[in-house]
Amino acid sequence: MRIVAIHEATIFTGENRANAVMNFSDMTTGLVAVVTDVIRDGKPVVGYGFGGTGRYSQNAICRERLIPRILAAPDKHSNGAGDNLDPFAIWDCMMSREKPGGHGDRAVAVGTIDMAVWDAAAKIADMPLAAFLAARHGSGEVPDRVPVYVGGGYYYPGADHSALQDEIRRYHDDGFKLVKIKIGGAPLDVDRRRIESLLEITDSSGLAVDANGRFARQEALSYAAALEPYKLAWLEEPAYPLDYALHAEVAQCYQGPIGTGESLLSTWDARNMLLFGGLRPDRDILMFDCALSYGICEYIRTIEAMEQAGWSRASVYPHGGHLLSLHITAGLGLGATEAYPYTHQPMGGFTDGLKIADGLVDVPDLPGIGFEGKSNFAFEFRKLV
Ligand SMILES: [Mg+2]
Protein backbone atom coordinates (compact mmCIF):
# COMPACT_ATOMS: atom_id res chain seq x y z
CA MET A 1 0.00 0.00 0.00
CA ARG A 2 1.48 3.31 -1.02
CA ILE A 3 0.95 6.85 -2.27
CA VAL A 4 1.47 6.97 -6.03
CA ALA A 5 0.99 10.70 -6.73
CA ILE A 6 0.33 13.99 -4.93
CA HIS A 7 -1.31 16.81 -6.87
CA GLU A 8 -1.47 20.36 -5.56
CA ALA A 9 -2.84 23.78 -6.49
CA THR A 10 -3.30 27.17 -4.86
CA ILE A 11 -6.73 28.79 -5.04
CA PHE A 12 -7.82 32.37 -4.38
CA THR A 13 -10.17 32.75 -1.40
CA GLY A 14 -10.22 36.53 -0.97
CA GLU A 15 -13.15 38.23 0.77
CA ASN A 16 -13.44 41.92 1.60
CA ARG A 17 -13.55 41.92 5.39
CA ALA A 18 -11.06 42.44 8.20
CA ASN A 19 -10.20 41.58 11.77
CA ALA A 20 -8.01 43.67 14.08
CA VAL A 21 -4.77 42.86 12.26
CA MET A 22 -5.52 41.90 8.65
CA ASN A 23 -7.79 42.24 5.64
CA PHE A 24 -8.71 39.05 3.78
CA SER A 25 -9.11 40.48 0.27
CA ASP A 26 -6.12 38.68 -1.29
CA MET A 27 -6.22 35.44 0.76
CA THR A 28 -5.34 32.09 -0.79
CA THR A 29 -5.21 28.49 0.34
CA GLY A 30 -3.34 25.41 -0.87
CA LEU A 31 -5.12 22.22 -1.92
CA VAL A 32 -3.53 18.79 -2.20
CA ALA A 33 -4.77 15.42 -3.42
CA VAL A 34 -2.94 12.29 -2.24
CA VAL A 35 -3.56 9.43 -4.70
CA THR A 36 -3.11 5.90 -3.31
CA ASP A 37 -2.73 2.54 -5.03
CA VAL A 38 -5.91 1.30 -3.29
CA ILE A 39 -8.71 0.80 -5.85
CA ARG A 40 -12.36 1.09 -4.79
CA ASP A 41 -15.19 0.89 -7.33
CA GLY A 42 -12.61 0.97 -10.10
CA LYS A 43 -11.02 4.21 -8.90
CA PRO A 44 -8.04 4.97 -6.68
CA VAL A 45 -8.73 6.14 -3.12
CA VAL A 46 -7.74 9.83 -2.98
CA GLY A 47 -7.28 11.89 0.17
CA TYR A 48 -7.78 15.65 0.15
CA GLY A 49 -6.29 18.39 2.28
CA PHE A 50 -6.14 22.18 2.36
CA GLY A 51 -4.07 24.83 4.07
CA GLY A 52 -6.57 25.92 6.73
CA THR A 53 -8.20 29.32 7.08
CA GLY A 54 -6.62 32.71 7.58
CA ARG A 55 -3.09 31.96 6.40
CA TYR A 56 -1.87 31.96 2.81
CA SER A 57 -1.17 28.86 0.71
CA GLN A 58 2.16 27.24 1.54
CA ASN A 59 2.09 24.85 -1.41
CA ALA A 60 5.52 26.03 -2.57
CA ILE A 61 6.95 24.23 0.47
CA CYS A 62 4.83 21.15 -0.35
CA ARG A 63 6.01 21.22 -3.96
CA GLU A 64 9.71 21.84 -3.33
CA ARG A 65 10.37 19.76 -0.22
CA LEU A 66 7.55 17.68 1.25
CA ILE A 67 6.02 15.97 -1.79
CA PRO A 68 9.38 14.85 -3.25
CA ARG A 69 10.37 13.37 0.13
CA ILE A 70 7.15 11.35 0.38
CA LEU A 71 7.30 10.06 -3.18
CA ALA A 72 10.97 9.11 -2.78
CA ALA A 73 10.20 6.84 0.22
CA PRO A 74 7.40 4.43 -0.80
CA ASP A 75 8.56 1.91 1.82
CA LYS A 76 7.51 4.42 4.56
CA HIS A 77 3.86 4.79 3.49
CA SER A 78 2.27 1.60 4.82
CA ASN A 79 1.46 0.54 8.37
CA GLY A 80 2.92 -2.67 9.83
CA ALA A 81 -0.12 -4.74 8.90
CA GLY A 82 0.06 -3.50 5.33
CA ASP A 83 -3.67 -2.68 5.33
CA ASN A 84 -3.54 1.10 5.49
CA LEU A 85 -1.29 4.16 5.30
CA ASP A 86 0.80 5.10 8.35
CA PRO A 87 0.20 8.85 8.81
CA PHE A 88 2.89 9.17 11.49
CA ALA A 89 5.57 7.54 9.33
CA ILE A 90 4.59 9.79 6.41
CA TRP A 91 4.73 12.78 8.75
CA ASP A 92 8.28 11.82 9.79
CA CYS A 93 9.18 11.48 6.13
CA MET A 94 7.99 15.05 5.42
CA MET A 95 9.99 16.42 8.34
CA SER A 96 13.24 14.62 7.57
CA ARG A 97 16.09 17.11 7.02
CA GLU A 98 14.05 19.92 8.64
CA LYS A 99 15.77 21.91 11.38
CA PRO A 100 13.97 21.98 14.80
CA GLY A 101 12.01 25.11 15.70
CA GLY A 102 11.10 27.91 13.33
CA HIS A 103 7.53 26.77 12.77
CA GLY A 104 4.98 28.91 10.93
CA ASP A 105 4.69 28.46 7.19
CA ARG A 106 6.23 24.95 7.24
CA ALA A 107 3.64 23.93 9.85
CA VAL A 108 0.87 24.93 7.40
CA ALA A 109 2.48 23.02 4.52
CA VAL A 110 2.89 19.83 6.56
CA GLY A 111 -0.64 20.24 7.91
CA THR A 112 -2.02 20.46 4.38
CA ILE A 113 -0.55 17.12 3.31
CA ASP A 114 -1.12 15.46 6.70
CA MET A 115 -4.85 16.24 6.36
CA ALA A 116 -4.98 14.53 2.96
CA VAL A 117 -3.10 11.48 4.29
CA TRP A 118 -5.56 11.07 7.19
CA ASP A 119 -8.50 11.60 4.80
CA ALA A 120 -7.15 8.79 2.60
CA ALA A 121 -6.46 6.52 5.59
CA ALA A 122 -10.01 6.94 6.95
CA LYS A 123 -11.42 6.30 3.46
CA ILE A 124 -9.31 3.13 3.13
CA ALA A 125 -10.79 2.01 6.48
CA ASP A 126 -14.22 3.08 5.14
CA MET A 127 -14.87 5.21 8.21
CA PRO A 128 -15.62 8.89 8.78
CA LEU A 129 -12.45 10.55 10.08
CA ALA A 130 -14.10 11.17 13.47
CA ALA A 131 -14.72 7.45 13.99
CA PHE A 132 -11.27 6.55 12.65
CA LEU A 133 -9.66 8.93 15.18
CA ALA A 134 -11.93 7.92 18.06
CA ALA A 135 -10.94 4.28 17.60
CA ARG A 136 -7.22 5.03 17.66
CA HIS A 137 -6.72 8.20 19.69
CA GLY A 138 -10.02 8.88 21.46
CA SER A 139 -12.52 7.07 23.66
CA GLY A 140 -13.73 4.83 20.85
CA GLU A 141 -17.11 6.57 20.96
CA VAL A 142 -18.23 9.26 18.51
CA PRO A 143 -21.04 11.57 19.62
CA ASP A 144 -23.94 12.14 17.21
CA ARG A 145 -23.41 15.89 17.50
CA VAL A 146 -20.98 18.33 19.09
CA PRO A 147 -21.18 21.92 20.38
CA VAL A 148 -20.49 24.52 17.70
CA TYR A 149 -20.01 28.28 17.65
CA VAL A 150 -19.71 30.81 14.83
CA GLY A 151 -16.58 32.81 14.17
CA GLY A 152 -18.04 35.97 12.61
CA GLY A 153 -18.63 39.65 13.33
CA TYR A 154 -15.78 40.87 11.15
CA TYR A 155 -15.33 44.53 10.25
CA TYR A 156 -16.95 45.11 6.87
CA PRO A 157 -16.53 48.38 4.97
CA GLY A 158 -19.48 50.67 5.75
CA ALA A 159 -21.26 48.18 8.04
CA ASP A 160 -23.14 49.62 11.03
CA HIS A 161 -24.57 48.11 14.23
CA SER A 162 -27.80 47.04 12.56
CA ALA A 163 -25.82 45.10 9.93
CA LEU A 164 -23.91 43.38 12.74
CA GLN A 165 -27.16 42.58 14.54
CA ASP A 166 -28.62 41.18 11.30
CA GLU A 167 -25.56 38.97 10.85
CA ILE A 168 -25.88 37.52 14.35
CA ARG A 169 -29.68 37.03 13.97
CA ARG A 170 -28.98 35.06 10.82
CA TYR A 171 -26.67 32.73 12.78
CA HIS A 172 -29.37 32.29 15.44
CA ASP A 173 -31.89 31.45 12.70
CA ASP A 174 -29.39 28.86 11.39
CA GLY A 175 -29.35 27.04 14.75
CA PHE A 176 -26.25 28.54 16.39
CA LYS A 177 -26.44 29.88 19.95
CA LEU A 178 -22.89 31.14 20.50
CA VAL A 179 -21.24 33.72 18.24
CA LYS A 180 -17.81 35.33 18.32
CA ILE A 181 -17.15 38.81 16.93
CA LYS A 182 -14.00 40.73 16.22
CA ILE A 183 -12.71 43.50 18.46
CA GLY A 184 -9.56 45.60 18.39
CA GLY A 185 -10.04 46.81 14.82
CA ALA A 186 -11.79 49.94 16.12
CA PRO A 187 -11.34 52.16 19.20
CA LEU A 188 -12.48 50.64 22.49
CA ASP A 189 -15.58 52.85 22.68
CA VAL A 190 -16.69 51.69 19.23
CA ASP A 191 -16.12 48.05 20.17
CA ARG A 192 -18.10 48.52 23.38
CA ARG A 193 -21.03 49.84 21.36
CA ARG A 194 -20.72 46.85 18.98
CA ILE A 195 -20.89 44.51 21.98
CA GLU A 196 -23.77 46.40 23.61
CA SER A 197 -25.75 46.37 20.37
CA LEU A 198 -25.50 42.58 20.34
CA LEU A 199 -26.36 42.18 24.01
CA GLU A 200 -29.76 43.61 22.98
CA ILE A 201 -30.39 40.41 20.99
CA THR A 202 -28.35 37.74 22.81
CA ASP A 203 -27.29 37.10 26.38
CA SER A 204 -23.66 37.45 27.37
CA SER A 205 -23.03 33.69 27.44
CA GLY A 206 -23.87 33.64 23.72
CA LEU A 207 -21.25 36.23 22.78
CA ALA A 208 -17.44 35.94 22.64
CA VAL A 209 -14.92 38.51 21.38
CA ASP A 210 -11.63 38.11 19.51
CA ALA A 211 -8.79 40.65 19.36
CA ASN A 212 -6.58 38.48 17.10
CA GLY A 213 -3.46 39.12 19.15
CA ARG A 214 -3.25 42.78 18.23
CA PHE A 215 -3.01 44.46 21.65
CA ALA A 216 0.16 45.72 23.26
CA ARG A 217 0.28 45.68 27.05
CA GLN A 218 -1.68 48.83 27.96
CA GLU A 219 -4.43 48.24 25.42
CA ALA A 220 -4.78 44.60 26.47
CA LEU A 221 -5.22 45.61 30.09
CA SER A 222 -7.63 48.44 29.20
CA TYR A 223 -9.79 46.12 27.12
CA ALA A 224 -9.73 43.42 29.80
CA ALA A 225 -10.90 45.90 32.43
CA ALA A 226 -13.57 47.38 30.16
CA LEU A 227 -14.95 44.01 29.02
CA GLU A 228 -14.92 42.20 32.35
CA PRO A 229 -18.37 43.47 33.48
CA TYR A 230 -20.06 42.11 30.34
CA LYS A 231 -19.32 38.51 31.47
CA LEU A 232 -18.82 37.37 27.87
CA ALA A 233 -18.32 33.73 26.88
CA TRP A 234 -14.63 34.45 26.37
CA LEU A 235 -12.01 37.05 25.44
CA GLU A 236 -9.82 35.66 22.63
CA GLU A 237 -6.18 36.39 21.84
CA PRO A 238 -5.92 39.48 24.07
CA ALA A 239 -2.12 39.52 23.55
CA TYR A 240 0.39 38.72 20.84
CA PRO A 241 0.22 34.93 20.26
CA LEU A 242 3.78 34.30 21.54
CA ASP A 243 3.69 36.86 24.37
CA TYR A 244 3.23 34.35 27.18
CA ALA A 245 4.03 36.94 29.85
CA LEU A 246 1.27 39.31 28.74
CA HIS A 247 -1.21 36.44 28.55
CA ALA A 248 -0.32 35.71 32.18
CA GLU A 249 -0.79 39.34 33.15
CA VAL A 250 -4.22 39.53 31.48
CA ALA A 251 -5.24 36.24 33.15
CA GLN A 252 -4.30 37.78 36.51
CA CYS A 253 -6.76 40.64 36.09
CA TYR A 254 -9.50 39.22 33.84
CA GLN A 255 -11.76 36.80 35.70
CA GLY A 256 -13.73 35.57 32.70
CA PRO A 257 -12.52 32.85 30.30
CA ILE A 258 -9.65 33.63 27.95
CA GLY A 259 -9.36 31.80 24.63
CA THR A 260 -6.04 31.53 22.83
CA GLY A 261 -3.72 29.23 20.89
CA GLU A 262 -4.89 29.40 17.26
CA SER A 263 -1.57 30.97 16.26
CA LEU A 264 0.61 28.47 18.11
CA LEU A 265 1.84 26.22 15.34
CA SER A 266 3.54 23.35 17.15
CA THR A 267 3.34 21.18 20.27
CA TRP A 268 6.38 23.05 21.61
CA ASP A 269 4.62 26.42 21.34
CA ALA A 270 1.54 24.97 23.03
CA ARG A 271 3.63 23.57 25.90
CA ASN A 272 5.24 26.95 26.42
CA MET A 273 1.85 28.67 26.52
CA LEU A 274 0.65 26.22 29.17
CA LEU A 275 3.87 26.61 31.16
CA PHE A 276 4.22 30.39 31.02
CA GLY A 277 0.90 31.91 29.83
CA GLY A 278 -0.82 31.86 33.23
CA LEU A 279 -3.88 30.16 31.76
CA ARG A 280 -6.41 28.50 34.05
CA PRO A 281 -7.56 24.93 33.29
CA ASP A 282 -10.86 25.52 35.10
CA ARG A 283 -12.08 28.14 32.62
CA ASP A 284 -9.75 29.04 29.75
CA ILE A 285 -10.07 27.69 26.21
CA LEU A 286 -7.29 26.33 24.01
CA MET A 287 -7.88 26.93 20.30
CA PHE A 288 -4.98 25.17 18.58
CA ASP A 289 -5.65 25.04 14.81
CA CYS A 290 -4.95 21.54 13.53
CA ALA A 291 -4.68 22.47 9.86
CA LEU A 292 -2.16 25.24 10.58
CA SER A 293 -0.03 23.45 13.17
CA TYR A 294 1.46 20.39 11.43
CA GLY A 295 -1.84 18.51 11.17
CA ILE A 296 -3.40 15.65 13.08
CA CYS A 297 -0.17 13.81 14.04
CA GLU A 298 1.11 16.91 15.84
CA TYR A 299 -2.35 17.67 17.26
CA ILE A 300 -2.40 14.29 18.98
CA ARG A 301 1.01 15.11 20.52
CA THR A 302 -0.29 18.54 21.58
CA ILE A 303 -3.28 16.96 23.31
CA GLU A 304 -0.99 14.54 25.15
CA ALA A 305 1.17 17.49 26.31
CA MET A 306 -1.93 19.38 27.38
CA GLU A 307 -3.31 16.45 29.37
CA GLN A 308 0.07 16.00 31.06
CA ALA A 309 -0.15 19.66 32.08
CA GLY A 310 -3.48 19.02 33.80
CA TRP A 311 -5.87 20.16 31.09
CA SER A 312 -9.02 18.42 29.89
CA ARG A 313 -9.80 17.74 26.22
CA ALA A 314 -13.09 19.58 26.84
CA SER A 315 -11.05 22.81 27.12
CA VAL A 316 -10.01 22.55 23.46
CA TYR A 317 -12.12 24.37 20.86
CA PRO A 318 -10.15 23.95 17.62
CA HIS A 319 -9.94 27.07 15.48
CA GLY A 320 -10.72 26.86 11.79
CA GLY A 321 -14.46 26.62 11.22
CA HIS A 322 -14.28 23.74 8.76
CA LEU A 323 -14.81 19.99 8.39
CA LEU A 324 -11.41 18.98 9.78
CA SER A 325 -12.06 20.87 13.03
CA LEU A 326 -15.48 19.22 13.31
CA HIS A 327 -14.04 15.71 12.85
CA ILE A 328 -11.23 16.15 15.37
CA THR A 329 -13.67 17.66 17.89
CA ALA A 330 -15.93 14.62 17.60
CA GLY A 331 -13.18 12.00 17.23
CA LEU A 332 -10.79 13.23 19.90
CA GLY A 333 -13.46 14.25 22.42
CA LEU A 334 -12.78 18.01 22.34
CA GLY A 335 -15.08 20.70 23.72
CA ALA A 336 -16.57 22.50 20.73
CA THR A 337 -15.82 23.34 17.13
CA GLU A 338 -15.80 26.69 15.42
CA ALA A 339 -17.85 27.21 12.22
CA TYR A 340 -17.51 29.68 9.37
CA PRO A 341 -20.86 29.11 7.64
CA TYR A 342 -20.53 31.98 5.16
CA THR A 343 -16.92 33.21 5.32
CA HIS A 344 -13.59 31.64 4.31
CA GLN A 345 -15.22 29.92 1.33
CA PRO A 346 -15.00 27.30 -0.03
CA MET A 347 -13.24 25.89 3.07
CA GLY A 348 -15.54 27.32 5.78
CA GLY A 349 -18.55 25.40 7.08
CA PHE A 350 -19.46 21.75 6.86
CA THR A 351 -21.08 19.29 4.44
CA ASP A 352 -24.13 20.61 2.58
CA GLY A 353 -27.33 20.39 4.59
CA LEU A 354 -25.65 19.13 7.78
CA LYS A 355 -28.07 19.72 10.66
CA ILE A 356 -27.27 22.49 13.12
CA ALA A 357 -29.73 23.10 15.96
CA ASP A 358 -29.62 24.35 19.56
CA GLY A 359 -25.92 25.16 19.25
CA LEU A 360 -25.01 21.60 18.21
CA VAL A 361 -23.86 20.28 14.82
CA ASP A 362 -24.27 16.73 13.56
CA VAL A 363 -21.14 14.71 12.80
CA PRO A 364 -20.92 13.85 9.07
CA ASP A 365 -21.06 10.18 8.10
CA LEU A 366 -19.25 10.21 4.75
CA PRO A 367 -15.96 8.28 4.67
CA GLY A 368 -12.89 10.40 5.48
CA ILE A 369 -13.36 14.13 6.06
CA GLY A 370 -16.25 14.23 3.60
CA PHE A 371 -15.21 17.10 1.35
CA GLU A 372 -17.15 15.23 -1.36
CA GLY A 373 -20.34 16.30 0.46
CA LYS A 374 -19.52 20.03 0.34
CA SER A 375 -20.30 20.96 -3.25
CA ASN A 376 -18.34 24.20 -3.58
CA PHE A 377 -15.23 22.60 -2.06
CA ALA A 378 -15.59 19.28 -3.92
CA PHE A 379 -15.69 21.29 -7.15
CA GLU A 380 -12.21 22.68 -6.40
CA PHE A 381 -10.76 19.31 -5.35
CA ARG A 382 -12.10 17.52 -8.44
CA LYS A 383 -10.06 19.88 -10.60
CA LEU A 384 -6.87 18.55 -8.94
CA VAL A 385 -7.12 14.94 -10.11
MG1 LIG B 1 -9.39 33.98 16.69
TrEMBL record:
One Pfam family it belongs to: MR_MLE_N
Mandelate racemase/muconate lactonizing enzyme C-terminal domain span: 161-257
PANTHER family referenced in this protein's UniProt entry, alphabetically: D(-)-TARTRATE DEHYDRATASE, D-GALACTONATE DEHYDRATASE-RELATED
Protein known as: Mandelate racemase
Organism: Ancylobacter koreensis
